[in-house]
Amino acid sequence: MSRPTWDEYFMKIAHLVAERSTCMRRRVGAIIVKDKRIVSTGYNGAPRGLRHCLEVGCLREQMGIPSGERQELCRGAHAEQNAIIQAASSGGSMEGATMYCTTAPCSTCSKMIINAGIRRLVLGGRYPDSLGETLVAEAGIETVYQVLEPRP
């Protein structure tokens, strides 16, 4: 029996977190880890106390907005944003942390990741708008793509 690496372990948790998503188009999960301890988790969905897209429908679908464009026209917050907000609201430091996310960040999330002091990203896939990845690279944040494979 083999054990998962730390990156595999935390990425599996990010995928589990994504299952809580209330987005009708893309289920995303993110976790922030520091010193092999989970600081916070986040998934994409409407802000606290507001009705979710699963209840009221997808505004972006209704308006015909393609994935990766016009993120401001959505009632939900991204998984990365929610993980950063949760860490900040509980006083958890993200300086030097690693974020595991089931997809690459958009440009808005990338700016938040950079300003939060996160120094490493482990990502499960690409995002339709590559500007986020460009910003992360310019900031010198180490980025690893981790596609989960079934383990023996």
Share of helical residues: 25-40%
Could you tell me the mean pLDDT?
Answer: 91
* Cα-atom radius of gyration: 15 Å
In spatial order, strands of the major sheet run 2-1-3-4-5
Instruction: Name the helix and strand elements from N-terminus to C-terminus, one letter apiece.
Output: HEEHHHEHEHE
- Give the uncertain stretches in residue-range form: none
Got a strand count?
A: 5
Largest sheet: 5 strands, mixed
Regarding quaternary structure, what we see is single chain
**Global geometry:** globular
Q: What percent of residues are in strands?
A: 15-25%
Helix count equals 6
User: What structural class results from the helix and strand content?
Assistant: alpha/beta
In short:
The chain is of the alpha/beta class. 34% of the residues lie in helices and 16% in strands.
Explain how this protein is built.
The chain is of the alpha/beta class and 152 residues long. 34% of the residues lie in helices and 16% in strands. It has six helices and five strands, in the order αββαααβαβαβ. α5 packs parallel to α6. The N and C termini lie close together (7 Å). The model has no long low-confidence stretch (mean pLDDT 91).
List the helices and strands and how they pair.
Elements: H1 6-18, E1 29-34, E2 37-43, H2 53-56, H3 59-63, H4 79-89, E3 98-101, H5 107-116, E4 120-123, H6 131-138, E5 142-145
Parallel strand pairs: 3-4, 4-5
Antiparallel strand pairs: 1-2, 1-3
List keywords for this structure.
152 residues, alpha/beta, five-stranded mixed sheet, 6 helices, 5 strands, 34% helix, 16% strand
